[in-house]
Specification:
heterodimer; A: alpha/beta; seven-stranded mixed beta sheet; two-stranded antiparallel ribbon; B: alpha/beta; Rossmann fold; 5 helices; 4 strands
């Protein structure tokens, strides 16, 4: 099974991920890739509180994730990889790498971003990063919950 | 000391509905404030909390994990004038609105106990 979902979501571990996607996909582990969270014990404890005890959580920096991606992909259990921003996902979804599909699940409003979908706000630079990921042959879609239809990257960037 | 504020932090309109239910049962309309995480990242949720927290408070969170709790803990961390309770239900709020003269941590513990006692499996 390995990594069945690579998701960009600025809330990282939360209800849509753990319940919406997690229950649907039967996930057994979550990889959270974020340099800031990796350096913060209390934030890691906080994110663990939202995860059922039978689901493992791995916290990784971008550099650590690049080292371990193939190993996570080889895991026989279904898992989810999360990043809080498109730049981090762009660093992980390299040419020919194990991430072949990217799900944009939640990027909220901030100054400089404009609404692309109800749950996706992007700067022009962020939209360019997503199109760049797609240009490497990675399927990029937006989809907040499993029951929603996926929106192709060309329709929201 | 001013009375505690209760802030319910939830997905969608759960918080708003709980505030309405407490008012319908007790007539107390000024003790609780609803905050929804709709459309919020953590920074936006913290701004919503800052806008309503003008006194010591108890934050009532819907789930014991997830974005509402994460945003609340980020805001309340290191602030002894704010206590956080998860698993909000109507019973704990009904206890809270009548015990707002307590310290935040004590009011939170009381409310959590009341909420827990309200969960039962009953005969049909």
């Amino acid at each position: 099974m390995s990594l069945v979902l690579a998701r960009v979501d600025d809330r990282l571990i939360h209800g849509q991920v753990v319940v919406g996607w997690g229950k649907t996909l039967g996930i057994r582990y979550i990889v959270l890739v974020d340099d800031k969270v990796r350096a913060s014990d209390w934030e890691q404890d906080l994110y663990r509180m939202g995860v059922p005890p039978d689901v493992d959580v791995v916290f990784a920096s971008i550099a650590e994730a690049l080292q371990h991606l193939a190993e996570w992909q080889a895991d026989r259990r279904p898992g989810i990889l999360l990043t809080a921003d498109v730049e981090t996902m762009g660093a992980l979804a390299a040419n020919g790498g194990p991430i072949r599909r990217v799900n944009v699940g939640g990027v909220h409003h901030r100054p400089g971003r404009s609404e692309r979908l109800r749950y996706v706000y992007l700067t022009d630079d962020e939209a360019t990063v997503l199109r760049g990921i797609a240009a490497r042959g990675v399927e990029v879609t937006a989809q907040d919950v499993p029951t929603a239809p996926p929106v192709p990257v060309g329709e929201f960037t | 000391m001013s009375e505690l504020r209760g802030v319910i932090v939830s997905h969608a309109a759960v918080a708003e509905s709980l505030v309405a239910a407490v008012k319908a049962i007790t007539g107390i309309a000024d003790a609780l404030v609803p905050v929804s995480n709709d459309g919020c990242d953590y920074d936006a949720l913290e701004r919503k909390l800052a806008a309503v927290l003008d006194r010591p408070a108890v934050l009532f969170i819907d789930l014991p994990g997830g974005s509402c709790l994460t945003g609340a803990i980020r805001y309340a961390r290191g602030r002894p004038d704010i206590a956080v309770v998860t698993g909000v239900n109507l019973a704990m709020l009904l206890d809270f609105v009548f015990h707002r003269a307590l310290a935040p941590a004590e009011a939170a513990r009381r409310a959590a106990d009341a909420g827990g006692r309200a969960i039962k499996v009953t005969a049909a």
